[in-house]
Specification:
The complex is a heterodimer of chains A (136) and B (186).
Chain A (H helix, E strand, L loop, with lengths): L3 H16 L5 H8 L5 H22 L20 H16 L3 H9 L5 H18 L6
Chain B lengths: L1 H4 L4 H19 L6 H11 L16 H19 L10 H9 L22 H21 L3 H10 L3 H20 L1 H5 L2
The chains are: A mainly alpha (136), B mainly alpha (186).
Chain lengths: 136, 186
């Protein structure tokens, strides 16, 4: 039950993604063709808000609800950051959905996205299977 | 009450998305990231003794609950508070898509393409099944997606996340301009 709070954060995140139209295939096509500011505006406001709140958390030495010190996220470099992201970009252009919107699209009534999500799960499993043959 | 059904502009949606980063950290040191839920599902269902999938997925089960929440958020935003009008994309994108055989936009997705019967066509199969596969394969290879690298990693000023974000945008831009037209023509 202590995980129930994440259900509500997820609902909030999914609602914002959907009402902000970030789950729309049309918006993703428009974004990759540079034909509107909408999606870029979302990124260019989400990141500074996230960054500013991380600075505040550090400056004010904020702790979690349970009193733990907050561990700052670290994303170490490996070549997959470039190779994997390029591959993901191809898939994003096709499906018009990154992983978050896959869940939200199903909720929004596009049940066929269950197939896309299943294909994404198969893709993840295939990477896990091929990992040892691929450059890290 | 009309505003509830209207889509939210970028300057409302963007900051709210950014706020999920501190919210998850303050609630329990959780890191925003959706593609890890795909790994979780693999680890829970078919770990097959693969190193990437052999870990205590139950200790990370919060993110499956989070993902289920995202789905419910989709019901709220896309059904309960659904925008009655089509997504108002730019007229040049509409013109381009029509030149590629699409109808005028309706709703959030082109239902003429994203439907069950088009799964058995070459075009639909590539767009949904191959596309989905690439999303799952690429995000795991990169150890993050638009949320984990693009929002969380950039917020934490992690330069590898900047490389990831630049790469998935580059991949999407190149693919949209040079390859998608051939797939639309199928």
């Amino acid at each position: 039950m202590k995980n129930l709070k994440y259900l509500f954060v997820g609902i909030f995140f999914g609602l914002v993604l959907t009402k902000g139209e970030a789950v729309s295939w049309y918006r993703i096509q428009e974004m990759f063709r540079f034909e509107a500011f909408h999606m870029f505006g979302i990124f260019m406001t989400a990141v500074p808000v996230g960054a500013l709140s991380l600075i505040l958390i550090r400056k004010l030495n904020l702790r979690t609800q349970e009193g733990e010190p907050i561990r700052m996220p670290e994303k170490p470099y490996h070549h997959g950051v470039i190779i994997g992201s390029l591959i993901f970009g191809f898939g994003w252009a096709l499906t018009g959905a990154c992983p978050g919107p896959l869940y939200a699209q199903i909720g929004a009534g596009f049940l066929v996205t269950v197939v896309t999500l299943s294909a994404a799960i198969l893709g993840t499993w295939s990477y896990a299977y091929l990992q040892k043959y691929l450059p890290d | 009450m009309d505003f509830l059904y209207k889509p939210w502009p970028w300057y409302v949606a963007g900051p709210l998305i950014g706020l999920t980063v501190p919210l998850l950290l303050l609630l329990g040191n959780k890191k925003l990231g959706i593609s890890s839920t795909l790994r979780q599902i693999c680890a829970a269902c078919v770990p097959a003794r693969l190193p990437l999938l052999t870990y205590d997925w139950r200790s990370e089960s919060w993110n499956l609950i989070f993902a289920f929440g995202v789905l419910i958020g989709g019901v709220l935003g896309g059904v309960v508070l659904a925008n009655p009008n089509a997504v108002a994309i730019s007229t040049s994108t509409v013109a381009y898509l029509k030149s590629q055989g699409f109808n005028d936009p309706q709703g959030l997705m082109p239902s003429e393409l994203f439907n069950w019967s088009s799964l058995v066509t070459m075009k639909g199969f590539i767009m949904m099944v191959v596309g989905g596969f690439l999303v799952g394969f690429g995000t795991r290879y990169a150890r993050g997606c638009t949320s984990g690298h693009g929002i969380l990693g950039l917020s934490a000023l992690q330069w590898p996340s900047l490389l990831a974000t630049a790469s998935f945008f580059l991949g999407g831009i190149l693919f949209s301009h040079f390859i998608l037209p051939y797939i639309f023509a199928l």
